[in-house]
Records
---
Amino acid sequence: MLWKFPEVSLAPEVIWNPGGIFPITNTLLCTWITILALVAFFYFGTRNASLIPSGFQNFVEWIVEFLVNLVNGVVGSRKDKAARFFPWVASFFIFILCANLMDVLPGIDTIGSLKGEEIAHVGGNCAPVLGFLPSCQPLSLGPIHFLFGNISNLITPWFRPPTTDLNLTVAMALLSVGATQFFGFYHLGAKEHLSKYFNFRALRKGPMGLIDVVVGLLEIISEAARIISFSFRLFGNIFAGSLVLAAFAFILPFVAAIIFIPFEIFVAVMQALIFALLTLVFMEIGTTSHEAHEEHLVEEEQKVLQGEKAAA
């Protein structure tokens, strides 16, 4: 046995606890690394900015232009909305993308500290691997340990993709929903925004107005469900991707990397785009009044009728 399948831990592992009051997990460490990488990325991409971009600045501006066009495509002619939505959408997309891509970097989930207490219990099942590699003691080159055989999965990784931590994905989902509600109050006013959820005036219409009341209350449930769907979708896809890479690296080492790493890169990009795009769409819906929505539907219906008349 060259190695064993790595242990799966749903919760992030604590790798350092200074003073016993501030536990630092492997996902928190990678979150800090992601932030520092993004700061360096934009610093070097804009420090020598020129009117005619070239090189690295051209790549950075291409990303920004893509996100600007994405926001404008959803918001339309409301430039005031676009200016307010863009920082949120761009921040979500770029941060999540960078965090997701850590999953395919060498050393992620594989470099860490030995679990000394568990290694001590392995003892009786030791056997040399390939005649010379130890299976119960790590092969060491200074501070670096190469694990084989029975102890190959007894490691606490120092690095783990930030988005495999449910705490982070829930926090981002709360920010997304919270920002949507804030913009709803800002653009519509408290009275009109709250009427989306508590439309008791509809009872004046008679029994049919009760449907509008129930729909409004269902909107509250929808907002809460959005937090769950946002956080678990991102967490589930990236965490599952980590397990897929680990499983196939165990079954088909080297070959699996060629097949599944490009797939994981695709998933990383798509999940970042989905989170950012859904946030943008919900912000646009949350800042649109019922009257404006109905007027838009009437305009679209008139366009369709005019098209049918012209065709006739």
---
Amino acid sequence: MGSQWGADRYYQKSRREGYRSRAAYKILDIQNKFNIIRSDDNIVDLGAAPGSWSQALRDMTDGQVIAVDLNPIVPIENVITIKGDFTTEKVQSQILSHVDLVNVVVCDASPKLSGQKAYDQARAIGLCEQALHFACLILKPGGNFVIKSFQGEMFKELLDEARENFYAVKVYRSKATRRGSTEAYIVARNFKGFSNVSDRQL
């Protein structure tokens, strides 16, 4: 790990406090700012590996935390881990086999980067759209959604789609985001739900 990582205060703090990555401080910051998670919420954490968000979420709720990723996640106490693609009916059914309802969906996932800015931006937005669609399928009305994206081409379209489905939507740059990064979080609260139950069949 290079010197720029070693000098990062959030990286050093995560090692001291037992989090698997510095990213834990992003969801802690978002919770402190927006209070999106209540003490009894069931939460689905998409793109969860290595598990630092799930570690932080576990301390925010007495409800169930379910961590999902294409890669295996080292077990976390009192967190259900699922290896698979959250866009598939199989994984969605697995999630719903553990909880009757989902109050919050969070996603800190990023696609593997190629170094080609336009291509990487398109893939990142595509992943965000999939996560937003998943949230709209699985959240209870009034639920909350948080997703990482990158500001640039197509970001406005993603933001507009979130606003169509949630009553309150904000763009937030976490204090733990590295300087110079275009990373931003969409914090969407109070899911509007569906007028027709059949619209949200998985």
---
Amino acid sequence: MQIQVVKSKIHRVKVTGADLNYIGSITIDEDLMDAANLIQGEKVQIVNNNNGERLETYAIPGPRGSGEITLNGAAARKVAVGDVLILIAYAWMPLEEAKTFNPALIFPNEENNLLE
């Protein structure tokens, strides 16, 4: 049996931009992506703590050390700059592996989205 479990989580980052005219996705500071074990193009769930919205898109790397969290395309309508988000990626794995799997959970500085 395979089950889906949390693989990566970036907990409580602030939206720094919303670009309706971009093709789509979420731009994430590449330092955050590395720390959370996310790769370019990976599907991520976005949970908006300010308005309750939940949506899915894919990650693209932003400049390292920038703290950038920008929702692009239609997803830009689901956030406002300053909203607090939780970003989650999931993985399928066998049940026995899932019992011992440790996800990459990171907690950046909530003011600037940088790792401390």
---
Amino acid sequence: MKITRSELLDVVYRFYPRKMLDIAREHVPPGELVYDDTEEHRRLVEAASRGRAEYPTWKAMIRRLGDRYRLQNESLHLLSGGTDPAYSARIWLTNETAMTFHVSLLGPYYGIHLPGISEEEPVARDVAREIEATYPGYQPIPPELGDVIVPDLFEPRAYFGVATIYLCLFSEVWTWADL
């Protein structure tokens, strides 16, 4: 089944509200965020809680991958009560270059952020196979959709003021591969 832009935006808006103008409160000082009071945020917190409960599945998968590659788990913040929208990890392809991969807690999606080097392709295929075996029904978000800027989004974690579908469904860890 092909993923659509509309489907992904519906998922994003389920967990992140549109601009807060219509839900601003009189007693909140100008510029103060009230995102934590929204139904969308409550859903994100619930998804993160489910992610903590299902963490053993993720841990088993990254342990298998870690047996084959130099792997760094980027999901420990989730275990400490964070509201990350995805599990995330990185595999070091060289001493200086890593690819990251993410499994969303908000919908049946995953992403592999490639650094653009020759060593990445066989590793990316292996990671995709492992994710799809561990999380049946999950699909990769193609770059032409993942890089779409989400319009009218109130998202306190926006990266330099811009929130893409990738950022919303995979967290700020998605952007770390660009640094």
